[in-house]
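Researcher: Go.
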Amino acid sequence: MKTICVIDDDVYISDMLNEVLTKNGYRVIRAYSGTEAVMLLSEQTPDLILLDLMLPGMTGEQVMPRIKNVPVIVISAKGDVESKVDLLLSGAVDYVSKPFDIRELLARITAALRGSPDNKERITAKDITLDCDKRCAYVGETEIKLTRTEFAILKYLMINSGQAISKSRLLDRISADTPDCTEESLKIHVSNLRKKLRDVSDTEYIKTVWGIGFIFTES
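Model: Structure:
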């Protein structure tokens, strides 16, 4: 199930989007200010963000630079061309002016998710390549046999390469693929994953960040 973060201080619009998105099979998380959004996104990584611009605390323009590796659709009453161009150049994948047609928004969400990292057939970081369609992992030219859980862990850490990921966040993001994985078993899965990678390379790809969780190292 894909997770969409709705960042909008208008309670009516937020409630409406929550109802529509939930009915269409999405999981929804919400923030009502820019400051709350930054805090929420430090704990969870959604698959897509719907971002209003005129927010209390921090504006949408101030929130944008803090969003990494997540597609953003800006939804705003600011309909001038200059605002749209600036936001698209700063990283937004789409811009929808208020008021909007919900069917059009749903279509734009589908298109944005189609191009997000989770839907790419191949993900590469350092010398590791994941074939997401075949669920195969390679270090260089050598194929590594991974369990479903190990693949899901490696995939999410690679997508967020260089970012420390908490155990709770990792468990939440891989839960659709590995519903039986717990915090205790997660340590075992990560340990087994590290061993399999070390068997074909001297590189330590995954490091423990004490008190937080794990990180796929870029260096």
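Model: The chain has two domains: 3-118, 121-216.
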